[in-house]
Amino acid sequence: MANAPQHIHPVSDRLLQRADKEALLGQRGCTVWMTGLSGSGKSTIAIALERHLHARGHYAVVLDGDNIRTGINSNLGFSEEDRTENIRRIAEVAKLFLLNGAVVVCCFVSPTIAIREQARAIIGAQDFIEVFVDTPLEECERRDVKGLYAKARKGEVKNFTGISAPFEPPPSPALRLTTINRSADTAADHLLQYLLPRIQRT
Questions:
Q1: What is the predicted pLDDT for the residue at 150?
Q2: Which of 4, 16, 71, 110 could bridge across to 20 with cysteines, CB 3.0–4.6 Å?
Q3: Which secondary structure element, helix H or strand E, spans residue 191, and what is its range?
Q4: Pick the catalytic residue: 12, 110, 172, 183?
Q5: Strand segments (E) across 69-163
Q6: Largest CA distance in the chain
Q7: Helix, strand, coil percentages, rounded to 5, for the chain
Q8: DSSP-derived 3-state class of residue 176
Q9: Catalytic residue flag (residue 40)
Q10: Above 50 in pLDDT, residue 1?
């Protein structure tokens, strides 16, 4: 391992490898990185996608922003530095699941191109599928599922993406999903049909 301290001795080369795990699971692993504004529908689509995959015998793991921030990243805030570290840790966790053959579904605002490219670099471009849940700000704010937009408008929530912090849409995502006049289940099925050729073993 590059730059590893001398007292650290990784055992990864002695463990069963990714191909062994994928053969056992009967699938090919990948990481689906869902980006979009808060309230865009990322988590709802991911929940439906997990169920669709499970019904077809595929092993999937969902990593969601709220769950991660109440656990492994509970010590991080929303400064630019903390957002970067948040995504770095998530990408490393996603990579661990990926190397064990899972279809990893990540649901994170991940608001800048640079921060998503950081995740892509850690996970590996060949296994990184960027999905843009393209829901307009006004619709996300209308839904305001968690009441965060209202608080952000009042200045009670700082550095809130779309209000007091920027969101940079992916210039060329692998897939763009819209949730306007479309159910989350329909969007999830669209994503499923895109993924199946990628994860099914021949």
A1: 92
A2: 16
A3: helix 184-199
A4: 110
A5: 103-107, 128-133
A6: 56
A7: 45, 15, 40
A8: strand
A9: no
A10: no
Residue with the two structure tokens 């969601």: 64
Q: In this model, does residue 133 exceed pLDDT 90?
A: yes
| pLDDT the model gives residue 70 | 84
Rounded to an integer, what distance in angstroms lies between the CA atom of residue 184 and that of residue 179? 7
Neighbours of 51 (CB within 10 A): 14
Q: Contact 82/39 with Cβ under 8 angstroms?
A: no
- Which amino acid belongs to residue 105? V
> What is the residue type of 42?
K
Q: Angle 13-59-76 (CA atoms, 0-180°, nearest 5)? A: 75
* Cα angle: 119, vertex 120, 123; to 5 degrees: 85
What value does the mean pLDDT take over residues 157-172?
Answer: 92
Overall average pLDDT of the 70-87 stretch: 87
Section 179-195 average pLDDT: 94
Q: How far is CA 167 from CA 34, 115, 132, 172, 196, in A?
A: 14, 11, 12, 15, 29
For the stretch 4-7, contacts whose Cβ atoms lie closer than 8 Å and that sit 24 or more positions apart, written own/partner, are none
| pTM for the full predicted model | 0.90
3-state SS class at 107: strand
Q: What percent of the chain has pLDDT over 90?
A: 72
